[in-house]
């Protein structure tokens, strides 16, 4: 599932391609036919992302809500739209560009009340400049749940997925099994600031890089990481490989029904 930086990049791209102009909207697959008919010909006034949720705001007050989930994918291009291939849930077209959406977990219209409810059930987004993270800390402190589970809970922090959470905990020197009630406010401030920095870099670069300059392939004389997710990381999916900082083999275990990765030396329980 795409992490939050990818959704923010999509919001920027869709605004660039379609913002401020009327859009022809259709649903070749038919599963969004009524919503597409309602939006067809309206002006796309703004786009935004809240965590892993993409929002298109149209003239007339309707909002298109898209959650890609595990299988959702956008494709787009210049000029006339290509022939309809596969299950296209949503197609957007203007005089210069086209966009297709396939396989999303959600593609629906929200009225203002439903939009407000969506925002209310999501935690603060590290990529939103107005969020200082205190709302998230208030939900974390006193909890007996693990930090890994808490930080991946979208009602607590919106947008951070397994890679960002895994790497932020490594950079903070905290094992993923640390409970929320053991997290001090100063530690949280450092994690929150780090998530904001890492995810902003992800928006700018289009990939997840979490290593400091001293631990890049060039600095260490090592081969670049080869992984479908791309980017240089400390522990994510590096089971058994030496920690880039201390050389201890990276460990993994199932935690909160997900694979957790950590360095037992750099991330000791305090």
TrEMBL record:
Family from the record: Belongs to the FPG family.
SUPFAM superfamilies linked: Glucocorticoid receptor-like (DNA-binding domain), N-terminal domain of MutM-like DNA repair proteins, S13-like H2TH domain
PROSITE patterns in the cross-refs: FPG_CAT (PS51068), ZF_FPG_1 (PS01242), ZF_FPG_2 (PS51066)
Alphabetical GO biological process terms: base-excision repair
Organism: Dactylosporangium sucinum
Protein name: DNA-(apurinic or apyrimidinic site) lyase
InterPro entries per UniProt: DNA_glyclase_Znf_dom_DNA_BS, FPG_cat, FPG_N, H2TH_FPG, Ribosomal_uS13-like_H2TH, Znf_DNA_glyclase/AP_lyase, Znf_FPG/IleRS
Domain FPG-type: 234-268
EC number annotated for this UniProt entry: 4.2.99.18
Enzyme class: lyase
This protein's UniProt keywords: DNA damage, DNA repair, DNA-binding, Endonuclease, Glycosidase, Hydrolase, Lyase, Metal-binding, Multifunctional enzyme, Nuclease, Zinc, Zinc-finger
Cofactor requirements of the protein: Zn(2+)
Annotated catalysed reactions: 2'-deoxyribonucleotide-(2'-deoxyribose 5'-phosphate)-2'-deoxyribonucleotide-DNA = a 3'-end 2'-deoxyribonucleotide-(2,3-dehydro-2,3-deoxyribose 5'-phosphate)-DNA + a 5'-end 5'-phospho-2'-deoxyribonucleoside-DNA + H(+)
Signal peptide: none
GO MF annotation terms: class I DNA-(apurinic or apyrimidinic site) endonuclease activity; damaged DNA binding; oxidized pyrimidine nucleobase lesion DNA N-glycosylase activity; zinc ion binding
Pfam families: Fapy_DNA_glyco (PF01149), H2TH (PF06831), zf-FPG_IleRS (PF06827)
Gene3D superfamilies: 1.10.8.50, MutM-like, N-terminal
Source organism, top-level taxon: Bacteria
Gene: nei
Residues annotated as domain Formamidopyrimidine-DNA glycosylase catalytic: 2-144
């Amino acid at each position: 599932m795409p992490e939050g930086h990818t959704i923010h990049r999509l919001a920027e791209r869709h605004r660039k391609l379609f913002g401020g102009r009327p859009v022809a909207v259709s649903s070749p697959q038919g599963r969004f036919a009524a919503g597409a008919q309602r939006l067809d010909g309206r002006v796309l006034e703004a786009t935004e992302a809240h965590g892993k949720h993409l929002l298109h705001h149209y003239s007339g007050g309707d909002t298109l809500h898209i959650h890609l989930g595990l299988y959702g994918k956008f494709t787009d291009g210049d000029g006339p739209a290509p022939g309809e291939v596969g299950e296209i849930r949503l197609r957007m077209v203007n005089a210069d560009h086209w966009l297709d959406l396939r396989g999303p977990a959600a593609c629906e219209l929200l009225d203002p009340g439903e939009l407000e409810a969506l925002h209310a059930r999501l935690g603060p987004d590290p990529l939103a400049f107005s969020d200082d993270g205190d709302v998230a800390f208030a939900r974390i402190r006193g909890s007996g749940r693990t930090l890994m589970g808490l930080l991946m809970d979208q009602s607590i922090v919106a947008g951070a997925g397994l890679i960002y959470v895994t790497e932020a905990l490594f950079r903070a020197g905290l094992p993923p099994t640390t409970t929320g009630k053991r997290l001090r406010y100063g530690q949280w401030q450092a994690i929150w600031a780090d998530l904001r920095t890492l995810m902003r870099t992800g928006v700018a670069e289009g990939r997840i890089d979490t290593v400091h300059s001293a631990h890049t392939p060039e600095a260490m004389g090592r081969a670049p990481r080869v992984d479908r997710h791309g980017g240089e990381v400390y522990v994510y999916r590096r089971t058994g490989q030496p920690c880039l900082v201390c050389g201890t083999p990276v460990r993994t275990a199932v935690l909160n029904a997900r694979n957790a990765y950590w360095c037992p030396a750099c991330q000791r329980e305090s």
